[in-house]
Amino acid sequence: MTPEDHVQEWLDVTGALSLTDDYDSYRQRILLPLRLETLGGTTMIRCDADLAQTFADWRAMLERLGIRSIRRTVETVRPLGPNRIYCSYRTVMEGEGGAAAPAYPGAGVLCFDDGVWKANEMWVGVENTSFPLTDPRTDEIHDESEAFRRFAEEKKT
């Protein structure tokens, strides 16, 4: 598989696991500590209990908003070494009647650990100040935001 294939598979699988409430399988695709950055701030998830709570809160938001589909599409991929990949992607969350929130950009670093690609750092292009999200705030989000450029620049090395 190509690096792009690995990233797209990770995006597809973790999105599907979020919708099926399969925390145990989701947990296998996260490398702690996990750094989650938004336009508004940074959250560090250091232990399993924090990740489980964040996942449960994410699931509650998805259910409350009626999200039935999470489509994330790879935009760029850059290997950072034999076991690390930087990626950027776009997320669309849809409910019964179409898009439930505006599409938003994301980026991250995946690490190959114990035979599985796992997220270690994620930048989510929403304005919320911390995780878990209760509503994705996307009023002024665009790919050229300063935070997104800064995150991408940091991952070039």
Outline:
The chain has 157 residues and is α+β, with helices and mostly antiparallel strands. The chain is 32% helix and 37% strand.
- Using the coordinates above, name the CATH class: Alpha Beta
Estimated helix fraction: 25-40%
Uncertain segments of ≥5 residues (pLDDT<50)?
140-145
Number of strands: 7
Q: State the shape.
A: globular
Q: Give the radius of gyration.
A: 15 Å
Q: What does this protein look like?
A:
It is a single chain. The chain is an alpha+beta fold and 157 residues long. It has a single domain (3-154), classed as Nuclear Transport Factor 2, Chain: A. It has 4 helices and 7 strands; from the N terminus they run H-H-E-E-H-E-E-E-E-E-H. Strands 1, 2, 3, 4, 5, 6 and 7 form a 7-stranded mixed β-sheet that branches. The two termini are 23 Å apart.
Notable traits:
7-stranded mixed sheet; globular; 32% helix; alpha+beta; single chain; 157 residues
